[in-house]
C-alpha cells in the first residue's frame, strides 16, 4: 500500500488490525511490513513511500470485517485511531438479503477502506 508517512500509517494499521511491525530487512528501508502476532494466522500488510495521489475511487482497497463487534462501534474505534469517514456516493439504496452493511473510511494517508459487519441500526 502506498503511503506518504510509513511511521504514521504503520501505527494506525498496527492498532487497527492488532498487527505487529516486522523488523526491517535492511537499514534505511523506506517501507514497512505489519503482520499478525506470532502464532496468529493472517496476511501481512506492506506499506511503502509513495508520491502518487490517493485515488478517490480506488480499484483495489481493503475490506475489514468488524468480527463480533457492532459495525458502528468498530467504525468509532477506527476513527479514534485516526481514520476518517468518507462521503461515499455509491452506498446501495437497500441491501440484498444476507448482505452486510458497510462504511467507507480513509486511513491516516487518505487510502479508502471498507468496514462491514452487523449493525444495530440497519
Number of structural domains? 2
CATH superfamily descriptor of the largest domain: 2,3-Dihydroxybiphenyl 1,2-Dioxygenase, domain 1
* CATH topology category name of the largest domain: 2,3-Dihydroxybiphenyl 1,2-Dioxygenase, domain 1
Q: Roughly what is the average pLDDT, rounded to an integer?
A: 91
Q: Which structural class do you get from the secondary structure elements? A: alpha/beta
> Helix amount, in percent?
10-25%
Separate helix tally: 2
Tell me the distance between the termini: 31 Å
Describe the structure.
The structure is a single chain. Strand 7 and strand 8 form a beta hairpin. The radius of gyration is 15 Å and the shape is globular. The longest helix has 12 residues. The chain has a 4-stranded mixed beta sheet with strand order 1-4-3-2, covered by helices on one side. A 4-stranded mixed beta sheet has the order 5-8-7-6, covered by helices on one side. It is built from 2 helices and 8 strands. It folds into 2 domains: 52 residues, no CATH class; 69 residues, 2,3-Dihydroxybiphenyl 1,2-Dioxygenase, domain 1 (Roll), CATH 3.10.180.10. The chain has 122 residues and is an alpha/beta fold.
Question: Which descriptors apply to this entry?
Answer:
single chain; four-stranded mixed sheet
Q: What's the quick description here?
A:
By secondary structure, the protein is α/β, with parallel strands linked by helices. It contains two helices and eight strands. The protein folds into two domains: about 1-50, no CATH class; about 55-120, 2,3-Dihydroxybiphenyl 1,2-Dioxygenase, domain 1, CATH 3.10.180.
Amino acid at each position: 500500500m502506498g503511503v506518504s508517512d510509513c511511521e504514521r500509517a504503520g501505527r494506525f494499521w498496527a492498532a487497527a488490525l492488532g498487527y505487529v511491525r516486522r523488523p526491517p530487512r535492511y537499514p534505511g528501508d523506506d517501507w514497512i511490513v505489519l503482520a499478525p502476532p506470532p502464532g496468529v494466522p493472517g496476511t501481512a500488510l506492506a506499506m511503502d513511500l509513495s508520491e502518487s495521489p490517493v485515488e478517490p475511487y480506488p480499484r483495489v482497497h481493503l475490506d475489514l470485517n468488524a468480527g463480533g463487534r457492532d459495525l458502528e462501534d468498530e467504525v468509532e474505534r477506527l476513527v479514534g485511531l485516526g481514520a476518517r469517514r468518507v462521503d461515499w456516493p455509491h452506498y446501495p439504496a437497500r441491501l440484498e438479503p444476507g448482505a452486510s452493511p458497510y462504511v467507507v473510511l480513509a486511513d491516516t494517508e487518505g487510502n479508502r477502506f471498507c468496514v462491514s459487519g452487523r449493525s444495530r441500526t440497519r
